[in-house]
Structure formats: structure tokens, C-alpha cells
Amino acid sequence: MRIILDAMGGDNAPQAIVQGAVDAAKAFDTDIVLVGKQDEVRACLRECGGEGLSNITVVNATEVVTMEDDPTRACARKKDSSMAVALRMVRDGEGDAMISAGSTGALLSGATLIVKRVKGIRRAAMGPVLPNGKSGIVLIDCGATADCTPEYLLQFAFMGSFYAKKVLGIETPRVALLNVGTEDTKGGELQKTAFALLKAASDEGRICFVGNAEGSDLLTGKMDVLVADGFAGNVMLKTVEGAAKFMFGQLKNVFYKSTKNKLAALAVKGDLKGMKAMLDPSEVGGTAMLGIAKPVIKAHGSSDARAVFNAVRQAIACAQADIAGSIAANIDHMKINTSEGD
Amino acid sequence: MRIILDAMGGDNAPQAIVQGAVDAAKAFDTDIVLVGKQDEVRACLRECGGEGLSNITVVNATEVVTMEDDPTRACARKKDSSMAVALRMVRDGEGDAMISAGSTGALLSGATLIVKRVKGIRRAAMGPVLPNGKSGIVLIDCGATADCTPEYLLQFAFMGSFYAKKVLGIETPRVALLNVGTEDTKGGELQKTAFALLKAASDEGRICFVGNAEGSDLLTGKMDVLVADGFAGNVMLKTVEGAAKFMFGQLKNVFYKSTKNKLAALAVKGDLKGMKAMLDPSEVGGTAMLGIAKPVIKAHGSSDARAVFNAVRQAIACAQADIAGSIAANIDHMKINTSEGD
Q1: Contact between residue B99 and residue B311 where contact means Cβ atoms under 8 Å apart
Q2: Per-residue pLDDT tens for A206-233?
Q3: What is the DSSP letter of A111?
Q4: Bridge partner list, A59
Q5: Cα distance from A39 to chain B (closest Cα, Å)?
Q6: Which residues pair with B176 in a beta bridge?
Q7: Model pTM score
Q8: Closest Cα of chain A to B2: distance in Å?
């Protein structure tokens, strides 16, 4: 197994990326390739004691994709950027999976242009796993494609289901459709048509569709995959993040209110930390870009070494899962609109 | 001031509705009309000591709209339902505002058919106020219309702005557009076109548009009005509810974990209750249906007496605010598509 890391992407690059890579290289039986400005990357390697590790190699790339670059063109314009080089390497089989904490838009466009989608897949989708106190839930899509068609949602359902089964280990993932109510007839045109497609796929035994779900159902454990258009999915994901932050802020206010409360806070501090960690996206790793022909993982822009470490673990799992293979084997049942071509 | 209450709508009707009405009749200088099966309503009035109150009257209605009724036809089919009778009364000026905790869909359809929209308004919108630790934030729309046009969103921006100013007392409400990123060019076609409309209205000084906002911005206090299509807004609202519930559940687990933690919980119990109350929708009252020609308030289906009491207070504020008057005075600037007619 060989994991390719964009060493220059993310708020804390290259230090956090290199540190996470070193930790992962020590923990996992895998090769790691760090792609980036080699002098900087090697300096970081020395700093964090990773110089002598035989399973880490460095590949030079002279440019860096930044948040200021036009995402749709970044990888095409900066051909020698760490992101573009890393994507070409995974495309060419010089690694089994690729990870970047750089610009989401640039990575999505770059992966689509360089690595390409699995034949027949209309749009790639971002499928993060949200902690729900159980096995987690795959929310797909959550921002790759704002305007979706019913066919896209059908493909997201299959891809999310493959991911939940092969990466999360859920034997028969329960797939729900995000809607404004749980009744079968709810929603706009997109949801009504998608509902019929998902139900038909479920009737044929290809996925296990459990019906519509509302925003409030996300963390209840009632489903393993939640299918959404990229706009609503993104709103949902960020709303959960914002709500958690708000609640922890309010909780902090409560605990700082009086000496009595401060003492109480001291008593539960460790357990609260555990609760916060459970809700921490860096524990999950990154977000798989599903539908791309090779495993590409988007790590959070603010990833620290721990998040990078977890993203490597996730990338290994994704490479072993071969989601692209499952898609290719089922693509005939994932298409409805042949006029769009392949 | 006279507030008309659908006494039969909601999970706890008529008891909770009547109890809330009695509490409000004692607290506020307002007349209250209870519409419903008069024997049941009068029995409830007796039970909660509201029989002798001179500012409560009962109007008989023999039918009840239930959750099983087709929402789009409920008020038309059950002409003598408490909901339909109450809506006709507010339409005919026999009261200044109407409240129901019954079916949201039936109330929306009934209000649109019976009370009607303000001339020129394309769609009514639901604009609940979410607690954010400050003055609150109006989220509009959050479920009335799943498929929106840019013009609808422009109208929601004006209506939400009027509500924030006249009901919440915010002098210059900051209006944001829900999107998948804060950059001006983010989102799908709907958001891009709506952005241009909101910016133009802001440049003319008619609203104060502060740009795009993400799901994570909802509770930060950065804006007073968040404009969304009814689908994404509904997802957002319910996701916040679900996330809060999940977090309180996790917190409970922490507090029950050990004797030490239980003692800590005891110490902060009162303050945590305050935090929970702050996040409690029943403290806000109900959701105004904006764009309807007279004030119509949807109280939460699970409203208890306290929620009904707060909904009455809110209805009084809405009636005094005369949002419909503000809309009528500004409608020429709230339309772009004249082909749809008025």
C-alpha cells in the first residue's frame, strides 16, 4: 500500500502534514509519499524525527495551489503544484490513494480533470462520515454539486451505500433521502423524482432505501447513508458544526458562571473532552470524493497532525475497499438518462 | 387588540391552548377568541379557572382539521373547522391576528386561500426566530415553498427585514443569503441570481444585505435575517433542533457516568436548565407566516400552555407591527417578474 500526500495543502502545511505522515508511517504498514517543495518538506521531516523512516519518500513539486487560485483552473494552471503532481501520481498507479488538505474546489476540479470520474458517473460527490454515537453516517453529497438532478442523487445513494458497507463495515446500509418531511410525497420536484428512483433500486434489492428523512434525523442513528443535493447537504453539515460550536460556547458560559460551577466543570472535564472528541471531525479523518476513479481524500483545511494521521488510516481503508470497482460493476443500474452520454 | 386562537389545533389541544389563552388573557391587555368545539373548550376553561374572564370569548366550530387531512384541501373541505373559522374571522377583521398549532401545511394553504397573500407577493414564507444568544435571527423561508425562484428570495429578504425591524426591534437588520460559501460567486443558479437581486436592493438602500452566509454562521450573531429557499431553510432549522437534542443527550450521558459527575450535574443543573430554555422554541412563541394579508402565527404542534402564551404575545407584536402594510408600501421594489402577474 502506498499513500500519496499533498504536503503543501491546508492551513498548517507543511508541518502538520509531515508530522501526521511520520506518525502514520510509524503506525501503519504502508509507504507514504510526500509531494511538495522538497527543501521545506525535508526540513519538516528532520524537525519531527522522520528523516530515517524507510517508508517515507519525498517527491518534489515547485508550486502550491492556494485559496486565492481559481479552483476550477488551479491544477491546470499550476501543473507542477503539489496537488496536481499528487493527483497525476495516483492516476498513474504510483500510489493507491491521494490525500490533500488544500482547497476543496481545486481538489474536486483537479481530481475530475486529472484522475477522472468512473465511467458513467455524472458527478463526483463528497461523502463525509458524521459521528452519531454509533457507526457514523455518510452524508452524500455535501458540497461538490449544488444543482443536482434525480439521477445524481440515485448515483450518490449507490456510492454512499458502497462506502458505508466497505469502509464503515455496515452489512446492509440503510439509505435515506434528505427531505422536508418523512412522508413519501414530500419535497420539491427533485426529491419526488429521486424518491421514486431510490425506491425502485431498493425494490430490486440493489440498495436498502428506508425513505425520507428530515434534518432532525441526521444524528439519530436511524440511517447509515443520507442522500442530499450538494447545496442542502453542505448547509446541513455546516449547520451541525455551527450548532455544536454554539452549544459548547453556551456550556462554557455556564461553567464559568460561578465558583461552584467551575468546580463542577473540573469534575466532568475529562468526560466532556471525550464528548468533544467524539464530535471532532479530525477524528474521522477526511472526506472521500466518491465517483473519482481512484481514492482521493479531502482532509479538513485546518487539519492538524492527528487529522492527517486519521486521513491516512481512512485512505488505506478506501484503497482496500475499491469503491470505484463496486461502482463499475453496478453502473448499469445507476443510470437513467442515457442522453447525457457516459 | 383581539387575538383569535384555533383551540383545537396541536398535540395538546384543547387543554394547552385554553390554558395558554387564560394565562395570556390575565397577563396582556387583549381580547382572546377561542374557536373550537364549544362544549370541550368551555369545559377546559372551567378546569383552568378561566370561566369568569371578560376578555375571553368562545366561538363554536364543529369540525377539526387533523394531521390525516390533505393539507392543501383541509380548510376548503372542513369549512366549519376551528382552523377555517378562525382564518375567516381574521380575514373579516373580527380579530387582529390568528394563531394555530394545527397542521402547518393546512394552515399555510388555508391562510393562502382564505386570508390571501398581500397583492404582489408570490409565496408566503415561514419566518421563525431562532435563539442565538443575542436578538435572535429570522430564518426565512423554512418550509413553506421548497422550490423557489430568485424573486421569491428577494421578497423573503424584504419580509424578513420588516419582521426583524418591527417585531424584534432591530433598527437596521443585516440580511444574509444562505449559501455553500461566503464568496460572492458561490452556489447554484438560484443563489447567484438572488445574490445580484439582494445586492441591488441593498445598493438602493431598501435592505441591508451583508452577503452570503454558511450553515455555520446561523447562530454566530453576524446577521439578523437569513434568506433561504424553503427546502434548505427547513433542513437547517431541523438540523439545529436535532443537533441540540443530540448534544443534550450526550451531555446527559456524561453527567450520568459516575457519582462524581452526578454531583457536578447537580451543581450546574439550574444554569443548564436556563441554557436549555434559551434554546427552547416554545419560548419564542410561534412562526409568523409572512406575506399573508393578516397576521397568522403557526405555533409548534407540540405547544404547551407556555408556548401558547408566548405565541399570543408574539401575535400582539405582529398585529402592532403591520408587516402587511410595510409590504404593500414597498411591493413595487419587491418584484422583478411582471409576467407572473400579481
Answers
A1: yes
A2: 999 999 999 999 999 999 999 999 999 9
A3: I
A4: A35
A5: 34
A6: B211, B226
A7: 0.92
A8: 33
Q: Judge whether A230 is closer than 8 Å to chain B, CB to CB.
A: yes
- Provide the residue type at A277 as one letter: A
- Residue numbers in B near A241 (CB within 8 A): 215-216
Give the 3-state secondary structure of residue A285. coil
Cell 413519501 found at: A184
- Is residue A251 within 8 angstroms of chain B, CB to CB? yes
What's the gap in Å between the CA of A24 and the closest CA on chain B? 30
Quick check: B103 contacting A, CB < 8 Å?
no
pLDDT in tens, B248-290: 888 888 888 889 889 888 888 888 888 877 776 666 678 999 9
Rounded Cα distance between B235 and B257, Å, is 33
3-class secondary-structure state, position B80: coil
Q: Is B256 on the interface with A (CB under 8 A)?
A: no
Q: Give burial (CB, 10 Å; 0-12/13-18/19+) of B248.
A: middle
C-alpha A10: how far from its chain's center? 15
Q: Which cell numbers hold the place of B21?
A: 389563552
H/E run at residue A135: none
A-B CB pairs within 8 A amount to 171
* Contact indicator for B333, B325 with CB cutoff of 8 Å: no
| DSSP 8-state code for residue B187 | S
Q: Indicate left, alpha or beta for A159 from its phi (over 0: left) and psi (-120 to 50: alpha).
A: alpha
Task: Compute CA B253 distance to the chain's CA centroid, rounded to the nearest angstrom.
Answer: 32
